[in-house]
Amino acid sequence: MSLVLPLILLLPLGLILAWSIPALRPLITLLTPWAALPALVASYWLPVGTEIQIPWLLLGTRLGLDSTGALFLSLTALLWWLAGLYGLCYQVKDPHRERFFFFYLLAMTGNLGLILAQDMMSFLFFFALMSIAAYGLIVHSGSEEARRAGHVYLTLVIIGEACLLSALILLAVKTGTVEMSHSSPATYGPVVLTLLLIGFGIKLGLLPLHFSLPLAYGATPVPGGAVLGGAMINAGLLGWLRFLPLGEMALPQWGNGLMIAGFAAAFYGVLVGLTQREPKILLAYSSISQMGLMTFGVGVSLGAPAHWPLVLTVLTLFALHHALAKSALFLAVGLTHHSGGILVRLTLLLPALALAGAPFTSGIIAKTALKSLSPLTAPPWSDGLPGLLFASSLGTTLLMARFINLTWPKGLGGRLPPGMWLPAIGLLLAVNFATWLWPAAEQAAASSLTSAAIKSGGWGILLGVALFILGSLLCHRLGVSWFIPSGDILVLIERWLSFIARGWNKVIHPIFRLQPQILTLPQRLSGQWDLPTASAYLETVLRRWKNFGLLFLMIALLLFGSLII
């Protein structure tokens, strides 16, 4: 039975190799979504604990299926399957459809492989394969915006991979093995923790490492955006679950830092997302906000390791809810380009209500589970957590109201092809029922049906919608229209780099131009031993450099500052 594990990866790898034959590419394109189906079946059929070792691959590859991996595998395979089927029809007129699905197949292989990986090098290899292949999905359109998004994304990917490789090397040196399970709490120093938080935080959208997500989501075609926002973003969370010492040691300072960063992202994503005018970019900021809540959960675990099983259940439950709802909204954006019927409106409205935490949806279950973490935190978190979660739900409601306002169809015309609405319906059913049917969510589901939870969720939705309507009317009356470019702080970074470049051209670069003149000054003055002549020539040389006075002033200020210190 363990031989089924490598078959999950051998099928997509075989299709990747066959893609080198041009005559087979149309067939491989049609088969690409179905390559995820064996992983979906295996996640339910294989028992937890199934494992296989391949000693000749990398540094000794070990593939396995634990309880956390089984949930992530089923969720990820479902999203890649349905989004791929949707994409076959959505991009039927795309002249480069075969190229898109080649990168789709590569990224899917990496995403499935990192879930099964049980050793450090295999995880890093598949994580890198997924991340780098996603570049092909982002730049697929070839537009200037897509190329810029791809460059920013790939830059952060390289930084993240360098951090992860450094962290895993340090872990392997300290433990003497590349196995994940042999890491002890004593091996996690500040350097390793920082590298792991940065490396996986880039994929997760951790502030301030988030700015590639809005650019990537906006540039990627709808099917690629669905897996970026639903499946691949969860790889960052899974990386934290695999490699951080969660449940093993108490790190209250690190936990408080992550909790603060989590809620900062939760509210920051809402504030910036409300100013967006492109639905896919708005969904990116919604993902930043929702992943901030998961970051908060990881922080809780670092501060309360004894309650790790409960926190793990909450995190996986929230990841399940968010991934399904966000992918459904991406597919709904594509549907609005073809039709405005009742089905399209349902695919917009129901997942949006779920993300906002409306009663009787998966969202209210996830938010109820998060509230159960309140007793695990120390003051002031334990006192303020219910209010913060309510404010976060209110912000998500505002964000979803803005999304509906941007995407709501104006007419009822158009006919949807079955290849698009069938995957969308499948994902819509998963959003509404998967969380309710998951056994581990039984307690949170029961708590979400209490009158207090229903009342709180209902009032939050009504208040959020009312605030959005009032805010929209007020902005319209005052003629105010706020807009923050996608990537937000990236704009500031680019301006800062531009300022440095101008400074280089005006101040530093002339130094190198002046250097040869100063070095050759003795040779130029050879034979001219009288001081007045040499001084006059030196003054002439220095006057040619218009910024010499500024350099002299800077040196004087530095010397003066050193005397004060």
Automatic annotation (TrEMBL):
Q: Name one GO biological process term.
A: ATP synthesis coupled electron transport
Q: Which residues cross the membrane?
A: 69-88, 100-117, 123-140, 152-173, 185-206, 218-241, 253-274, 281-304, 310-335, 342-365, 385-408, 420-438, 458-475, 548-564
> What topology does it adopt in the membrane?
Multi-pass membrane protein
Where is it predominantly found?
Answer: membrane
Boundaries of every NADH:quinone oxidoreductase/Mrp antiporter transmembrane domain copy: 117-339
InterPro entries, sorted: ComplexI-like_HydComp, NADH_UbQ_OxRdtase, ND/Mrp_TM
Q: What's the domain of life for this entry?
A: Bacteria
> Looking at the Swiss-Prot or TrEMBL record, what is one Pfam family this protein matches?
Proton_antipo_M
Gene Ontology CC annotation, any one: plasma membrane
Q: Which molecular function terms from Gene Ontology are attached?
A: NADH dehydrogenase (ubiquinone) activity; oxidoreductase activity
Compartments where located:
Cell membrane; Membrane
This protein's UniProt keywords: Cell membrane, Membrane, Oxidoreductase, Transmembrane, Transmembrane helix, Ubiquinone
Q: What is this protein called?
A: NADH/Ubiquinone/plastoquinone (Complex I)
